Amino acid sequence: MREGCGAERRIAAWRRERPRPQFSDSAGYVGFANLPNQVHRKSVKKGFEFTLMVVGESGLGKSTLINSLFLTDLYPERYIPGAAEKIERTVQIEASTVEIEERGVKLRLTVVDTPGYGDAINSQDCFKTIIHYIDNQFERYLHDESGLNRRHIIDNRVHCCFYFISPFGHGLKPLDVEFMKALHGKVNIVPVIAKADTLTLKERERLKRRASIPFAVIGSNQLIEVKGKKIRGRLYPWGVVEVENPEHNDFLKLRTMLVTHMQDLQEVTQDLHYENFRSERLKRTGKPVEEEVVDKDRILQQKEAELRRMQEMIAQMQAQMRMKPGDD
Ligand code: GDP
Description:
By secondary structure, the protein is α/β, with parallel strands linked by helices. Helices cover about 45% and strands about 15% of the residues. Strands 1-3-4-2-5-6-7 form a 7-stranded mixed beta sheet, with helices on both faces. It has a 3-stranded antiparallel beta sheet with strand order 8-9-10, with no helix packed on it. The protein has a single domain, classed as Rossmann fold (3-Layer(aba) Sandwich), CATH 3.40.50.300. The structure holds guanosine-5'-diphosphate. The site of guanosine-5'-diphosphate has 13 residues, from helix 3. Guanosine-5'-diphosphate (GDP) binds near residues 62 and 219.
């Protein structure tokens, strides 16, 4: 796993180059600085930690959407494998962290990407790696929570997962259904229809109905000038599709949902998914993690004492060997 690789360099570059978010209400911008007041005050002091996972076949526009959502460039050095490589490819997990600040509210955002998802010919096992990653973060949290320094735990649990549905099929694929069945008890899944600009209005409505009304979104990293204003959009021979235009797609709705429900998504993660994990684990091992830690400490102390005794014995033997018969 390449965790946060090159992150510092990326954050610095992003701070220099990112287009500044607009806060004016007329632009309809809802940033995380608009969190409710109580949360806002808490977040100003503590900072806000949020982990978002993105899952979907490669090429569906995941990175572009994430970059559009957070006005950042999370994947500047991305390597895109060819078809031959993809056949044998397994899912990888790549986590990148950026720190974003808006009106004094700090957000430590971790985006967990899952390249390789659905690429292999046999994609049956491809969400095992994802389940393993989510469980590992719960396990880390559980361990930290039962340790001494409980006040400063870094929360790396996955709070939300954007699941990208292809706009090119006739609805959900078997893999989409399998994934959602396997993971809905572990993470908050938000299905999104990617590249919604490739669908006509009728096609979009039909796909939404077949797939539980997900957000139909588009993404773009390009700024285009429209009527004297620079906007994010996709330029086609027949016109411009605007990312932040609610008549063109659900991008703004998706961002508003994410931003206004960040706290809820964290609470559901804590109260439902994490609690599920804790009780399952308790059933499996039969003891709470606190006891396991105590047990581990005791074993460690016994081993250390044993090691000390052996070292003393060796030292004694060496001393005896040095005292040859002729020496005394
Ligand atoms: P990823 O592999 O899922 O991360 O996909 P990328 O973000 O790298 O996008 C793959 C290709 O799709 C790129 O050529 C993007 O410019 C294009 N793309 C991204 N978002 C959209 C979109 O909303 N609509 C359309 N038509 N193309 C998009």
